[in-house]
Amino acid sequence: KIVDGKVPLIIEIKPEGNWKKTTRLLSERMKKYKGKYCIESFQPLAVALYKKLQPQIPRGQLASDMFKEKDKNNIVIKFLCTNLMLDFLAKPDFIAYNHLYSGNLSYRIARKLFPVTNVAWTIQNRHEMKEARKIFDIFIFEGFMPEKKHK
């Protein structure tokens, strides 16, 4: 009731626990939502499942260098997710990548293979924003107000 379709939402499906059940429940709940929204997840199979359940809703693949993030998943999952190797299944509308690791070779290759919108997260200051503007299309930021991009 608070948001009630007045603002667009970004909803993250957490990969921990029963992400399949969470994805299905979210899909059912959001059928009643009248506003705009998108979903995103570090779990590429959740992104793929949401595409099957709600193909009209924009979906994003969250990603980072899971080895540098000290992710708790096993080495195979870390490798697959860091290198966006399951995006052929997920077929995301956008990739939201940790801007700190934008030099990752697999991310650069994925940008060529999957011509989707690229989102940087999470930009902390103007210097990071200046660097991210060279690579990304959209920016998630906190702690400062970015300047408008001059054409």
Task: Walk me through the structure.
The chain is α/β, with parallel strands linked by helices and 151 residues long. The protein has a single domain, classed as TIM Barrel (Alpha-Beta Barrel), CATH 3.20.20. The protein is 33% helix and 21% strand. It has 6 helices and 6 strands. The chain has helices spanning 19-30, 44-53, 75-82, 87-90, 105-113, 126-132, and strands at residues 9-13, 37-41, 59-63, 94-98, 117-123, 138-141.
Describe the protein's topology.
Layout (H helix, E strand, L loop, with lengths): L8 E5 L5 H12 L6 E5 L2 H10 L5 E5 L11 H8 L4 H4 L3 E5 L6 H9 L3 E7 L2 H7 L5 E4 L10
- Give helix % range: 25-40%
The name CATH uses for the topology is: TIM Barrel
Main sheet makeup: 6 strands, parallel
Query: What shape does the CA trace take?
Result: globular
Which class of secondary structure composition applies to the elements?
A: alpha/beta
Strand content: 15-25%
Strand arrangement in the largest pleated sheet: 1-2-3-4-5-6
In total, how many domains does the architecture comprise?
1
Number of beta-strand segments? 6
**How much is the radius of gyration in Å?**
16 Å
Q: So what's the oligomer here? A: single chain
Order of helices and strands: EHEHEHHEHEHE
Number of helices: 6
Give the distance, in angstroms, between the N- and C-terminal Cα atoms.
39 Å
Mean pLDDT: 93
Q: Indicate the low-confidence ranges by residue numbers.
A: none
The CATH superfamily bears the name: Phosphatidylinositol (PI) phosphodiesterase
Query: How does CATH name the architecture?
Result: Alpha-Beta Barrel
Task: Give the CATH level 1 class.
Answer: Alpha Beta
